[in-house]
Amino acid sequence: MKLLQPADLKIDGSNAMPLYMQLANEIQRVIDEGQLRPGDALPSERTLMEMLGISRGTARKAIEQLIEDRILIRNPGSGTYVAPHVRQSLVQLESFSEIAFASGGEAQSELVGYFRRVATEKEQQLLQLEEGKKDIVELTRLRKISGTVVSVQRAVLPSPLLNKINELNESLYRYLEEKGVPVLSATQKFSAVAADKQLAYYLNISERDPILLVTRTGYSHNNIPVEYTQTWCLNEYYDFKIELKMPDK
């Protein structure tokens, strides 16, 4: 991380725009330009005040505006940090680790659930499990970018693909590739849902708060399904992008 210098933030006292708005815009700009990345600490209000010759109230108001806009997050007793922001294309298949890196952050996972069980009827159909081979592995992980939880992901795999949980590295897709069954294509569905009690706990939100559910089935060689995942995303941290074109006439 490059430490911000006074010259990095351009505040003009003769400008009709309020100083706090100028400062908020400048902080947004240095984030967009990559000088500050997800997880990086913002200078304190006092430091900004001394750097730019502004009042502490101006610095505080700019920071509070960016926190309200989910550009920054505040950790009491620690400081103010650049919030993670997941920018995902809908036309390119990417792992969470790749998405986090492209968004300027570091992917991290926390395992909160690991089960071996018999697949439900729906899972049997989606994973095309044969009769007598219906055992699956279910993994539930908190997905983080630079330390901030942005989603909860539950992945279901055919049992033979994961013998021991300690075999799994940070990236499920990288692990599957190393096992010789890379995810080569996938289908996805997006749904607006309300957080249940467990999701609310993991995501630090209120029960019944709206969140985005992304459901994916991933396929390997010969169109064989190897994963069925459900990812519950905090809306404020995710942007999905798709390019649309008019049909040829």
What does this structure look like?
This protein has 249 residues and is of the alpha+beta class. The protein has 2 domains: 77 residues, Arc Repressor Mutant, subunit A; 156 residues, Chorismate lyase (3-Layer(aba) Sandwich), CATH 3.40.1410.10. Helices cover 25% and strands 32% of the residues. The chain has 7 helices and 10 strands. The strands form 3 sheets. The chain has a 6-stranded antiparallel beta sheet with strand order 4-5-6-9-8-7. A two-stranded antiparallel sheet has the order 1-2. Strand 8 and strand 9 form a beta hairpin. The model has no long low-confidence stretch (mean pLDDT 89).
CATH fold category name of the largest domain: Chorismate lyase
Separation of termini? 50 Å
Query: What CATH first level of the largest domain would be assigned?
Result: Alpha Beta
Radius of gyration: 22 Å
Q: How much helical structure, as a percent, in the residues?
A: 10-25%
Shape: elongated
Low-confidence stretches: none
GO molecular function: DNA binding; DNA-binding transcription factor activity
Keywords: DNA-binding, Transcription, Transcription regulation
InterPro entries: Bact_HTH_transcr_reg, Chorismate_lyase_/UTRA_dom_sf, Tscrpt_reg_HTH_GntR, UTRA, WH-like_DNA-bd_sf, WH_DNA-bd_sf
Domain HTH gntR-type: 17-85
